[in-house]
Amino acid sequence: MFFAVLTWLPLVLWAYLSGTAIQDRIDEPLLRHFGIHARFLVAIPLLIFGEGLMHKVITKLIPYFYTSGLIRADQRSLFKQALQNTLSLRDSSMPWVAISAIVFTTVALQPPYQEMHELIWANTGTPTAFNLGFGGWWMLFVSRPIFVALCWVSLWRLALLFVLFKRIADLDLELVPTHPDRAGGLGFLEKIPLAFSLCVFAISLVLASRLAHEVVYHGLQVQSLKLLTVVFLIVIVLLFLSPLLVFFPKLSAAKRKARLEYGALVGNHGRLVYKRWIRHEPITDESLLQAPEIGPVADALSLYEAVIQMRAAPIGKAAILSIALPAALPLIALFAIQVPIKETLLKILASLI
C-alpha cells in the first residue's frame, strides 16, 4: 500500500486543497478522472501483489518437471543448467537498467502537459494560460513513472518465464501421448497463467477506467469500442499464454509420431483379434493379445483416441479463463454504462468463444 499512498494520496490532497478534487470551480475535477484512481489506487497494489502471486505459483510448479518424470536422467544436468541460466538472467542488472531507461524515456517523451487531458484538474492558471500545479508535476514525475516501471517489471517476469520454458522445451522431454491431461504430461502448466491474473486485471482496469471517463463525460459511445476491446482481449490472452505456446512444436511432433506408432499398435492388435476370433486362425505370437497394458480391443482403441485428443499446447479452458476473465471483467463494467448487463455479457462471451 506504500506505493499507492505515495502515488495517489498527494494528488488527492493537493486537489482538495486547491479546490479541484470535486466539482467546485472546474468542470473536470480529479474525482471524474477514473483512470487516475484506477491506475494509482488499485492497479499499483495489484501489480505489487501480483509479484508475490507469480513467485508462489511458478516456484510451486517448476519442480514438478522432476517429480512427474518429464525430465529424463540424462537430461537433468541440462534442465538444471536451464534453470541456472534463467536465474542468472533474472539477477542480472541489465534488465533493470533497461527498465529504468524505458521509464526515463517515457517521462522525457510524454506530450506537453498542456495537451494532456488527464491534467486539466491540475491547472492553476486559466484555460488559455495553462499553469501546472504541484499535483500535476507529482503525477508526471512520480506517480506515472512508478506505474510504468511496475508494468514493465511484470512484463519482464513474463519474458523470463518464456525464456525458461523455451529452454525446457528444447530438451528431450519424456512426453506421454496417452496422458489423461491431453498435454503429454504437461497439463500441470495450465495453472501458470493464474500467476499473471492480477497483472492482467490491473492492465485491463486502467484501460477500461480511462475509456469510462470518455463515455460518461465526453459522449463516447461504447459501441464504437467493440473492435478495440476485442483486439485488446485477443492480444492480452496471446501475450500471457505465450510461455505455454513454446511447447507447441514439441507437442505437435510428439502427437504426429504417436499417431503413427499407436495407429500401428492398434492395427496389429486388431488384426490379431480378427485372425483369432473371425477367421479362427492360429496365432503364433500372442504376446500382444495377452499384454495387460493394452487389454481388450476397447482399451486398445482408447489409447489411440487419447493420442488423437492430445493438444498441441498445454492450454485448456482453465488456462484461457485465467487470463480472459480478469481481462474481460473491467470491460464488462465499461460496456454496462450504456448497454444492459445481460447483453454485455453475451457480447463479451461471444468474443471469447
Number of strands: 0
Structural shape? elongated
Determine the number of helices (DSSP H or I, runs of at least 4 residues). 13
> What structural category do the secondary elements indicate?
mainly alpha
What is the CA–CA distance across the termini? Answer: 37 Å
The percent range for strand residues is under 5%
Largest sheet: none
What Rg is obtained from the alpha carbons, in whole angstroms? Answer: 28 Å
The poorly predicted ranges are none
Taken in chain order, the helices and strands follow as HHHHHHHHHHHHH
How many domains make up the coordinates? 2
Detail the topology: elements first, then pairings.
Layout: H1 2-18, H2 34-61, H3 64-67, H4 76-91, H5 94-109, H6 134-169, H7 197-218, H8 226-245, H9 248-277, H10 287-290, H11 297-308, H12 317-335, H13 341-352
Written overview of the protein:
- This protein has 353 residues and is an all-alpha fold.
- It folds into two domains: 2-246 and 326-352, no CATH class; 256-308.
- The chain has helices at 2-18, 34-61, 64-67, 76-91, 94-109, 134-169, 197-218, 226-245, 248-277, 287-290, 297-308, 317-335, 341-352.
Short description:
By secondary structure, this protein is an all-alpha fold.
